[in-house]
Amino acid sequence: MIRLSDVKVRLQYRWRVRQRLMVLQFARLHGPTAAARRFGVTTRTIRRWRARWREGGWAHSEVES
């Protein structure tokens, strides 16, 4: 799993990033549709977040589904 300490994030955004990482981790295990239902976001949003993490180059294998 990606750790928040692996990424340099401003203090004011850390909770938001941590929440997104939890959603992405759940999506990796159960799929984007199940994660979207559980966390109340769209599958499109989850795919966008995943794409951003991939573009950033952080631990590709951890976020892929």
The gist of it:
The chain has a domain at 21-65. It has four helices and no strands.
Kindly describe this structure.
This protein is mainly α. The chain has a domain of 45 residues. It is 66% helix and 0% strand. The protein is built from four helices and no strands. Helix 2 packs across helix 3. The chain is globular. The C terminus is likely disordered.
Portion in beta strands: under 5%
Q: Helix coverage percent of residues? A: 55-70%
Structural category is: mainly alpha
Spatial gap, N to C terminus: 12 Å
Shape: globular
Q: How do the SSEs run, as a string of H and E?
A: HHHH
What is the β-strand count? 0
Figure out the total of helices: 4
Query: Spans with pLDDT under 50 lasting ≥5 residues?
Result: 60-65
Mean pLDDT score, rounded? Answer: 80
Main β sheet profile: none
**Computed CA radius of gyration, to the nearest angstrom:** 11 Å
